[in-house]
Amino acid sequence: MIRTLPLWGFILTAVLLCIPILTHPHLPMVDLPNHIARLHIAANPESVLNEYYSYVLEFRTNVAVDVLWLSIGQWLSSAEQFSNVMFAVYAVGFLGSIMVLSRLVHGQWLMWPLVSNLVVFNAVYFWGFENYLITVAVALYMLALWLWMENQPNYIRILVYIPLCMLLYAMHILGLLVLMATAFGREVQVLIEAKRSWPQVLRRNWILSIPFLFPIGIVVYDIICKPPNIYGGAMRFGDLGTRLEVFTAPVSSIISDWSQTMNLIGFAILYVILALLLTLRRKEGARLQFNPRLRGPVIALCVLSLFLPDLLNGVAVVHLRFSFILLGVIFAATTWVDLKPKHGAVLFVAMAVLSVTRAVSVERMTSLHSREITQLISALDAVPPGSRVLPLRNMKLNPSPRLWHMQAYAVSEADSFIPTLFIGTHNLHLREEWWDSAKAIERSTPGFLLLDPPRIRKSRSSLQNWTYLYDWEQKFTHVLTLNTMEEGYFDEMPVHLIKSEGIFSLYEVEYVPSN
After folding, report:
1. Nearest Cα to 191, choosing from 206, 176, 213?
2. Is the pLDDT of residue 491 over 60?
3. pTM given for the model
4. 384 and 410 Cβ atoms separated by less than 8 Å
């Protein structure tokens, strides 16, 4: 019975993780509505949305969920249901990958790695980066395989990892970076441990870099030979506050208006984890012990977490994507020694309480969010297919990221155009005749910008400007407010209210002949 405890612990913990994800139809994630909209467009090429968007599945990075959706998912469920299942797969897959890594380095199945469930619901999860999160779990399994194959001939490792690296590249390039960094960290560790014989080890093992050269070559080719990103290719390291977010990202939520209690629980979890990890310094008594085989990968993940920029080639929140993986690998690398049964029981109960509390807090927030999205979808019932919807929000009332992309439900639920759907980062394209009615990557429109449109920067393309705000009465058929606008806001505008549900209101734009 004792030997099967890790298996039963894994099953129960996996169920606990899936409950907040699978028991409600709508998940509280910032970017997820955009991804659902893209999948909906991909599966319905003959819909009225074809007037605005085109989707062509090509070989490129960041297509993990798209491929699964188009090959299997679209025949089984809606785009949103499928996305929920994908996040459940991530949660269970991440937990499983940490268990497998632990088994590989310690030689037996342990209960302690199950603590990694505490970092499953992290900042990246609440951002809704579904392609990346699915890829992370796969990358960690590939790291385990890398370690397991260390005694195999190098040519076999190369032949195995060439297709695996290309697969990771297609799934998500930052997921590939997880494998690249951890494998590199391990190989550097092997060189250092070789001491004086390191030149021979280097001559023998340098060819292990070959599998990674193929995706690196694609990236270099894209940078040199392809035009700049349609959404810009800026890079930003971030200020001190941005960098400090790295340390709280494994347990925090960025949904600022509803997450205070959950963040307090998360910070308590982080405090307990750090307190337990400090036992690594003890020489006697109950303490954690670190398996040196994962020292290189852990150091590599530390470097990624601390030094990658916030904005990389136009892709945002890059810096927050690795610290939860770092903690997971640390859980895999550690085990308890000299732990008395009574202390082990206390530790087990404490970790179980934290795990349940965390899952319950996420479930409660998911329930509240799901109820609100149901109201939004009800408001969108009044939107005819093919409409063009301008989303607005009152920044003074609520600037939360939770409201940034809710308007994308107009695409998946009402077959309507919105100006803020992600364009350029996936296989989704906006037809050029609508470029002046959209912005490539943008949030729901702050209400004050409609009253005083910002100046257009002529050096930038229309998809990088606020051009869709100019003559908006001619470009859009409806206005959707994502929270309560200020009193009298619409008094001088050619719109009239047609439906309200909760905090959401839908207005129809009265036809205004162009001059």
Report:
1. 206
2. yes
3. 0.95
4. no
